[in-house]
Amino acid sequence: MSYLDQLNKGGKPDGAAAKPAPVAATPEDAAETAAPEPPITTVDLKREYEDAGVRDVLEELDRELIGLKPVKKRIRETAALLLVERARRRLGLAHETPTLHMSFTGNPGTGKTTVALKMANLLHRLGYIRKGHLVSVTRDDLVGQYIGHTAPKTKDILKKAMGGVLFIDEAYYLYRPENERDYGQEAIEILLQVMENQRDDLVVILAGYADRMDKFFESNPGFRSRIAHHIDFPDYSNDELHRIAVGMLERQNYHLTDEAATILASYIEQRRGQPHFANARSIRNALDRARLRQANRLFEQDAGPLDAAALSEIAAEDIAASRVFLQKPGHNAEPVHPETAARETGPRELGEEERHP
Amino acid sequence: MRMTQGTFSFLPDLTDEQITKQIQYCLDNGWAVNLEYTDDPHPRNTYWDMWGHPMFDIADAAGVMMELQSCRKAFGDRYIRLSAFDSTHGWESVKISFIVNRPKEEPGYRLRRQEGNGRNMRYTTEPYADAKPEGERYGV
């Protein structure tokens, strides 16, 4: 277990109250470090950790992101490295700006963009980037349509991202080996040049599916050697997805009935087996559709005045109506729930499920 | 003769580090930063060419410095000026403008006198560099 892990364990006030911890830790520390001020000879890592606000970011990460254990571990390790590197610099020890470019690999909906945002915040607090904003782009934003279009476009994006983090989603699309005159290569060259020469100004994070990113790195060895941190995002388990769903609903002031929670669990299980499953994103879409059905239900029932509880309750039938339950492998479109048969004739919602009969 | 124009004109030329700080100040205020270049050094010449577009959606000075470097690479033998435009309603004008690049040799200005009616004298200045056509003025 890393040092930072222990810090997190030890100082955590248990539960939702996160803020008071840094304050509570200071009085003894202040007495130790206040005296030797002019020549810095010692560095209190714990104090640095608190002062830079790294603890806040890491705790926020733990609190807000469900699952993703290996990712959190890697981020904590990275934070430790950067903190120590910073301390070394302060003491005048040999140091060089560590390469901070990263690659995030994982299936869609596993939280790559969210973590990138947190990473930008973390690097900003540690002083490795000056502004801490995140510029999220895809191939379209970097690669032009005709000769001479690509360089200004790529440079424009780079200019905007300076002082922050440039997040390139589905980075492998930049490189199209089947078309040797593709302008993506030009964008790659400019990117590589800036990644090498302006390491102090910009951190680049490449993201995408694991297998295609591997191929991309194979054909672009320049990228591989310039990226120090490869972080792999695992898929969420069913239980984690369920907790994510409940968290999403809570944030929107909705809650599930007990029955609905059970149905949701089986929904997640079935949805996973179907094409175009995108982890948390699929769940978010499913919840959006459930809210739509809930609204429809309330409207159609027309049961007189409604209180807040009724307006924020997602019932079992709101989820059970999903077409996911109709697609049993083996026999096609056999209604599973009695209510769904009635709903089948109603107006259809557009969603990712609909694309695959 | 050294041309002076805009903010900081009587200070020694700013270093890149100082320029970066000025740019950051401009960006923090939400001003659009522009780069312009010319090889007509006359103080009354207001028509400078723009290098690229005004840069108004940039967070950090490093982005502008990147443009400045490429402008210097292309027009290192000309005057380059950096200006920042405040688009706030009621201001809508340039808030700061200073020179960030100048030719190595600045030959200065010739003073011309013209005798007018009676004992009238008319004076005019023109840069020596003006004698040559645009683009050839500073030792290319």
From TrEMBL, chain A:
<dbReference type="Pfam" id="PF00004">
    <property type="entry name" value="AAA"/>
</dbReference>
<keyword id="KW-0547">Nucleotide-binding</keyword>
<dbReference type="InterPro" id="IPR003959">
    <property type="entry name" value="ATPase_AAA_core"/>
</dbReference>
<feature type="region of interest" description="Disordered">
    <location>
        <begin position="1"/>
        <end position="39"/>
    </location>
</feature>
<keyword id="KW-0067">ATP-binding</keyword>
<dbReference type="InterPro" id="IPR041627">
    <property type="entry name" value="AAA_lid_6"/>
</dbReference>
<feature type="compositionally biased region" description="Low complexity">
    <location>
        <begin position="14"/>
        <end position="35"/>
    </location>
</feature>
<dbReference type="InterPro" id="IPR003593">
    <property type="entry name" value="AAA+_ATPase"/>
</dbReference>
<dbReference type="GO" id="GO:0005524">
    <property type="term" value="F:ATP binding"/>
</dbReference>
<comment type="similarity">
    <text>Belongs to the CbxX/CfxQ family.</text>
</comment>
<dbReference type="InterPro" id="IPR000641">
    <property type="entry name" value="CbxX/CfxQ"/>
</dbReference>
<feature type="domain" description="AAA+ ATPase">
    <location>
        <begin position="98"/>
        <end position="237"/>
    </location>
</feature>
<dbReference type="InterPro" id="IPR027417">
    <property type="entry name" value="P-loop_NTPase"/>
</dbReference>
<feature type="region of interest" description="Disordered">
    <location>
        <begin position="326"/>
        <end position="357"/>
    </location>
</feature>
<dbReference type="InterPro" id="IPR000470">
    <property type="entry name" value="CbxX/CfqX_mono"/>
</dbReference>
<dbReference type="GO" id="GO:0016887">
    <property type="term" value="F:ATP hydrolysis activity"/>
</dbReference>
<protein>
    <submittedName>
        <fullName>CbbX protein</fullName>
    </submittedName>
</protein>
<dbReference type="InterPro" id="IPR050773">
    <property type="entry name" value="CbxX/CfxQ_RuBisCO_ESX"/>
</dbReference>
<dbReference type="Pfam" id="PF17866">
    <property type="entry name" value="AAA_lid_6"/>
</dbReference>
<feature type="compositionally biased region" description="Basic and acidic residues">
    <location>
        <begin position="334"/>
        <end position="357"/>
    </location>
</feature>
Automatic annotation (TrEMBL), chain B:
<feature type="region of interest" description="Disordered">
    <location>
        <begin position="108"/>
        <end position="140"/>
    </location>
</feature>
<feature type="domain" description="Ribulose bisphosphate carboxylase small subunit">
    <location>
        <begin position="4"/>
        <end position="103"/>
    </location>
</feature>
<dbReference type="InterPro" id="IPR036385">
    <property type="entry name" value="RuBisCO_ssu_sf"/>
</dbReference>
<keyword id="KW-0120">Carbon dioxide fixation</keyword>
<comment type="subunit">
    <text>Heterohexadecamer of 8 large and 8 small subunits.</text>
</comment>
<comment type="function">
    <text>RuBisCO catalyzes two reactions: the carboxylation of D-ribulose 1,5-bisphosphate, the primary event in carbon dioxide fixation, as well as the oxidative fragmentation of the pentose substrate. Both reactions occur simultaneously and in competition at the same active site. Although the small subunit is not catalytic it is essential for maximal activity.</text>
</comment>
<comment type="similarity">
    <text>Belongs to the RuBisCO small chain family.</text>
</comment>
<protein>
    <recommendedName>
        <fullName>Ribulose bisphosphate carboxylase small subunit</fullName>
    </recommendedName>
</protein>
<dbReference type="GO" id="GO:0019253">
    <property type="term" value="P:reductive pentose-phosphate cycle"/>
</dbReference>
<dbReference type="GO" id="GO:0016984">
    <property type="term" value="F:ribulose-bisphosphate carboxylase activity"/>
</dbReference>
<dbReference type="Pfam" id="PF00101">
    <property type="entry name" value="RuBisCO_small"/>
</dbReference>
<feature type="compositionally biased region" description="Basic and acidic residues">
    <location>
        <begin position="129"/>
        <end position="140"/>
    </location>
</feature>
<dbReference type="InterPro" id="IPR000894">
    <property type="entry name" value="RuBisCO_ssu_dom"/>
</dbReference>
<dbReference type="InterPro" id="IPR024681">
    <property type="entry name" value="RuBisCO_ssu"/>
</dbReference>
<keyword id="KW-0113">Calvin cycle</keyword>
